[in-house]
Structure formats: C-alpha cells, structure tokens
Amino acid sequence: MKILAFNASPRKGQSVTDVLMNTFLESAASAGAEVEKHYVVDLDVKGCVGCFSCWWKTPGQCVHRDDMDWILPKMVEADAVVFGTPIYHYNIVHHLQRLRERTLPLNMPEMYIQEGETHHPGRHEKKKPQRRIVISVCGFPDLSNFNQVEGLFPGAVKVFLPSSGIIYDESGRGYLEGFFQAIRQAGEELTVDGDVSEETRMKLIVDYPDEVKIMIVEKYNSWSREATPGT
Ligand SMILES: Cc1cc2nc3c(=O)[nH]c(=O)nc-3n(C[C@H](O)[C@H](O)[C@H](O)COP(=O)(O)O)c2cc1C
Question: How far apart are CA 88 and CA 145, in angstroms?
Fold first, then answer.
C-alpha cells in the first residue's frame, strides 16, 4: 500500500490538519504502508493556464515544468492519495485547488456518461481503484462548513473536524478520543484491507450537539476577547 499525502494548510507543521494527517499516516505506516507526505505550499506548482496542450498537443504532458513533473507519476502509482485542507471561506484552500487543476493531464479528453453523470476517462488504467481520503478542519463548530469539500471529493473517505481549536483544550482532547482512535483505525484498515469500513467512516466526522456548540462558542469568545489588543 503506497500512500501519497498532501497537506495544503499554509500553517504546515503547526496546523491541526497536520495533527490529523500524521495520526492517520503513522497508523498506516505501522500497519506496513509506505507513506509520503508533502506540504503543498512548499511545492512549485504553477497555475493551470487552460491551454489544453496536455490533451490535444502533447497528450499527458503539461506546458509547465515544475514539481507536477514528479507529482503526477507518483499520483498514478499511489494506491491511496490523502488531501488535507483547512476551510477558508467555506472552501478548500487555493493551494490545493491549484494542485487539483494541474491533474488535468491524468484524464483523457473524451467524455462518457455513467448513471446520468458525464466524466472524462483516466489516462492511466489502474488494476485496483485508487482510494481517496480527505482530511479537513475548520473554525466554526458546524459541519455545513464542509459542504464544498463533500462535493469536491465524491467517494472519498472523509475526516472532518469542526472547531479545530478544541484540540488545544484538555477537555476537548478528551472529547475527541474516539475520533482520534477512529483515525488510527482508518489508517490500519486502509493498509490491511485496502479500504475503510462504513463503521469506521461514520466515526471520522465530528458532529457536535447544540449544547457542545454553545460551550465551544462561549470559550472561544472569551479567549478571543483576551487575545484582541485594546479590549
Ligand atoms: C482566510 C481564512 C478563512 C477562513 N474561513 C473559514 C470558514 O469559512 N469557516 C470556518 O469554519 N473556518 C474558517 N477559517 C478558520 C480555519 O478553517 C481554521 O482556523 C482551521 O483550523 C485552520 O486549519 P489549520 O490549523 O490546519 O491550518 C478561516 C481561516 C482563515 C485564515
């Protein structure tokens, strides 16, 4: 099992995204997976210019020469790809969107319709379907902040932590024990079974009840007042 991971948080090693991603990858590695992680902001990934050369002029090859030259073959080779992103303005961060746009050479220009939806076929035939895992965190306590991420990664294993600051709080960490256990379980299942069970998937999304949301918001507001100069 080869797992290729991209953490798109600009906060890199300081990010909550990284804490969750490392938990997942460490568990997968100790179950025998070969794992590789990159911080997207450290990569040289130029923006897609929409020239479609990678389809009709030089099939499979982009006009840009940058880190996508080695990322794309690694993506093809990987059994699973993990994407990590905080939510910025209800969406994935632009660094990740730029990387995703540059995967166009992995698709063929033709279209086909499956179950009423139109797609482009992949350029590289895979013996086994590639697994996708998306890890996302946000500041508000509501799961609705991940609506765009849900739409962007259909079929992916989803790890969602709203109110990510909760991990800095001792009682918060206690509250999340089952969540972290589920992340470790997911890393192991992916490596050993090749997929994550439905039972584990359900535990990878933190859904706070209203009374917990109220506590989180009150704690956050008092912390924020103290942190704001002149208040
Ligand atoms: C520019 C910006 C926009 C943000 N927009 C949202 C948002 O729409 N919804 C939300 O819940 N949190 C939002 N946040 C908060 C981040 O999602 C939150 O701080 C997250 O934990 C950061 O993740 P990281 O620690 O992995 O970098 C925003 C943060 C920034 C800097």
Answer: 9
Report the Cα 32 to chain-centroid distance in Å. Answer: 21
With a Cβ cut-off of 6 Å, ligand 1 is lined by 9, 11, 15-17, 86-90, 137-140, 145, 164
**Domains contained in the chain, number:** 1
Residue 126 pLDDT level (bands cut at 50, 70, 90)? confident
Q: Which two tokens stand for residue 165?
A: 């600051």
Report the alpha-carbon distance of residue 218 to residue 119 in Å, rounded: 46
Burial 78-102 (b: 16+ CB within 10 A, else e): bbbbbbbbbbbeebbbebbbbbbeb
What is the pLDDT, as a whole number, of residue 154?
93
Find the 136 Cα to ligand 1 centroid distance in Å.
10
Does the model's pTM come out above 0.90? yes
For residue 189, give the CATH number of its domain.
3.40.50.360
Nearest protein Cα to ligand 1, atom 27: 15
- Sign of the torsion formed by the C-alpha atoms of 33, 98, 180 and 155: negative
Provide the domain limits for residue 49: 2-227
Q: How far is the centre of ligand 1, averaged over its atoms, from the C-alpha of 88 (Å)? A: 5
List the structure tokens of 221: 């507001």
Decide: 85 and 21 in contact? Cβ < 8 Å: no
